[in-house]
Design a protein that fits this description.
10 strands; Cyclic Phosphodiesterase, Chain: A; binds adenosine-2'-monophosphate; 37% strand; alpha+beta; globular; four-stranded antiparallel sheet; 180 residues
Length: 180
């Protein structure tokens, strides 16, 4: 039996923000806009790893644990639609430099460990709707939600009873912004 797991590094959303986002989504988007991502599955992917062996997972966790990076605030003030994957996403007009640096580090560690990394530029986003065929006709929430990222996590993506579930496997702190 294979012991590989489908993994990704991500930022989670604080519970209160998660609830605000799903309430807004329910009001702003009609049912035909797409299939809503479950509240517990809302996250911002930093690096997608694909199917990873237990040995490679251990190595990637060790590397992640060595990262010393300052925490940062993310302003969710942008909204868009990607027709090809059919997703509506929430993002940031100006992603903080520290977020881009963290993702870049995790993605380069993943690439060096043999995990394929897409050549497309990294665009930090939270997928809100899948199977979304229409462009969004909804403005982003104003003035935008802000959340503080004080840790990042490793998740396993699993399909259980036909539904995608994300399980947090580990998390690592990001340093206090006032005391890097
Ligand atoms: P998405 O939300 O834009 O679909 C878990 O599947 C997470 O990893 C999701 O956030 C998903 O991004 C991302 N992901 C899934 N497959 C991917 C791939 N082949 N390349 C990059 N990211 C991927």
């Amino acid at each position: 039996m294979s012991s590989s797991r489908r993994l990704f590094f991500a930022l989670s959303l604080p519970d209160a923000l998660q609830q605000q986002v799903i309430r807004w989504r329910a009001e702003a988007f009609p049912p035909e806009a797409g299939r809503p991502v479950a509240a517990a599955n809302l996250h911002l992917t930093l690096a997608f790893l694909g199917d990873v062996s237990a040995q490679k997972e251990r190595a990637l966790q060790t590397l992640a644990g060595r990262i010393r990076q300052t925490g940062f605030s993310v302003c969710l003030d942008d909204l868009g639609h990607w027709p090809r994957p059919g997703v509506v996403w929430l993002g940031s007009k100006r992603a903080p430099r520290a977020l881009l640096q963290l993702a870049e580090l995790l993605r380069s560690q993943a690439a060096r460990s043999g995990c394929y990394q897409s050549p497309l530029p990294f665009h930090p986003h939270i997928t809100l709707l899948r199977a979304a065929t229409q462009p969004v006709a909804v403005p982003p929430a104003t003035p935008g939600w802000i959340f503080s990222a004080d840790h990042f996590s490793l998740y396993q993506s699993a399909v259980e009873h036909g539904r995608t579930r994300y399980h947090q496997l580990a998390q690592w702190p990001l340093n206090n912004q006032d005391n890097p």
